[in-house]
Amino acid sequence: MTDSTVFQDIMGSDLPDQMTEAETLANRHTEAALERHKREGMELAVRARWGALAVVAVMIVFLNPGWEMLYHHVVLGLLALVGLLQRRVARVGRSRMELTILFLDLLILTFALALPNPFSHHDWPTSAIYKFEGFQYFYIILAAGTMAYSWRTILAIGIWTSGLWMAVAVAIWWFGTRDTELTAGLQAILGDDPDLMKLMDPSNVNFDLRIQQVVVFLVISATLALSIRRFSRLLLSNAALERERENLSRYFSPNVVEELSQHDEPLKRIQSHDVAVLFVDIADFTAYSSGRDPVDVIDTLREFHAMMEKQVFRHNGTLDKYLGDGLMATFGTPVAGETDATNALRCARDMQTDLERWNRDRARRGDPQIVAGIGVHFGPVVLADIGTSRLEFAVVGDTVNVASRIEKLTRELPGNVAISDATRARVIVESGKKEGALADLVRHQGQSIRGVDHAITVWASD
Q1: What was the pLDDT predicted at 61?
Q2: Whole-angstrom Cα distance, residue 55 to residue 53?
Q3: 113 in Cβ contact with 137 (< 8 Å)
Q4: Does the model's pTM come out above 0.70?
């Protein structure tokens, strides 16, 4: 299995096996997820460490009251400062500084637990101090580490701790002080019971118990590492889903993306309900583009589409499709809302406002004005997926055709925004007659539209 050397090192998080380093570096969602996880995890780890050390500081006073406990309080304070330092240097990826501080953390605790307290009045053999059940305090560092470190680092904590603890055992066995008189006296009391003598002898390091301690610690470290590895993969899977969601949002409106993400096959079912359909199109764009640099023409279209698209999404609309120098948007798809007609009308008016502002900027640059017509109609449509291997969300029906024809009427009517009488009536139902977007709309009766066998009433901006 080949892993990325950037994020799958001993201090990083796990990446899917199939990802290359280049893909990982290019995946900003993955990077953001890892950085957020490391930052939040380290903050939790440090707070958990401080809380645990505070509890231990109070506990040891009750268990063994005496001035010599100040030494252990100093050690606890030093470990708290090390935690603060770990938070400052924490980063995603390989960090030798972070590894060094982590090893220093384990080294401090090892010596504090295994070596005599310099302020203690007890003249005990070194191995007697080492045999106190202090090894359990390493579990505090291990548990806090699971909040911030990768599975590899948790394994490293297990291996380093076990190695340090056994190294100290060997050093105490070889160089530690012994009390032969105490051992002889204990031998006289216990008699011929070598097993009990081995257990009680203060000069005996008891390697079998020390081995048991480190083996259990390694097993727990490995178990926690597997759990963290699984969590890391879930974290990265979630980052991949967010990336896919953002990629969808580049092509579909947010409400369609939401519908797609919440249901397995949300658009398969053919459905029909009333929606508001909006068309916007640049007038005489062919004449505008004739003789111009194609790059300038495309740049103009991109600016125009960006403005129009922003307003569609801002008003909870669905960008159905681009139509050359225009676009079609729907409001109430894939699920009908309570203010679809109002949203469509407000979107049209804000499109008009943005277009006027854009034209003022263009005039200052000496560029020609861009005139666009906007038409809105509210009525029943049929919604469904079309296609087989490549699906497209389709909105069809007379409502779409009428909206397109109303947009064309803006070439003949005053103003650049025109809506059908059905749209206006629906806006009044949704938002009342005082709806601001209805202001300055003038009624134009008897408008003939190709494809409709009777004249309709249209309201256009003055």
Answers
A1: 82
A2: 5
A3: yes
A4: no
